[in-house]
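User: Hi! I'm working on a homework problem where we have to compare a predicted structure to a textbook description. Could you give me the structure for the chain below?
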Amino acid sequence: MPVVLNYALFSWQAPGVNADENAWLGFFANYVGLISAVCIALYQQHIQRKKDKEDELVQKKKEEDRLKRDNRSYIVLHDFNSNLRLKNVKTHENSRIIETEGYRKLVDSLNTMTGASDAFNTSFLKLSHYGNPEVILDCRVFLQTKTSEGNLGNFKVDIGVFEKGIEIFIPTVPINAHVGDTVEIIEVKVEYSTLSNEKVHYIHSLPEKKDICKIINDGQEEVLYEFQLDESSWIYPNKLQRD
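Assistant: Happy to help. Predicted structure tokens:
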């Protein structure tokens, strides 16, 4: 480098240029220093812009996660025993029974045999949901059951829009059940979408005695909660009212 500086600056001079070596050396030093300062400033600006963009993406992700959490709804599921038409059962005015094929067959059979079905009880799955949103969307329920005769039953119930505050009663009677059979629930799976377009799978597995709630996004699963079920018995005080 000293040899290059010597021949390029000190021993060479363009025609008409009047300056000594010290002046040229000072100019060269200032010129190189300016270029270096500009390069450093541009590099620092690039690094800062990159960092600001990363911080913005992180902040945006946090905000999206917060909105998703705020718009999540969770399913509450109970086994409920009542007469076939829920007569004298206090529920929300928009609560409803899902008339499955097995349920309609049972009602028709009882009406044919006895002339009335209101006096007979059966088991229902009672579903409700809680959370900030007023609704969940595209709600579907998949049931696996087994009768006392050993007949397995698998059926799907499409609920669609599920409003907050109401109760959905799904008869657990499979199509192959007969009057007098007892029905055992093997597994219940509820799939629905939140207002933030999150896909939620809630699984109630009795053989494994486990409740699991998962978020499914882009093929990736995130477990919101999972716990073991312990057997217990309960009643619903003041739920059934007599005339």
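For your comparison, note the following. The longest strand covers residues 135-147. The mean pLDDT is 82. Good luck with the assignment!
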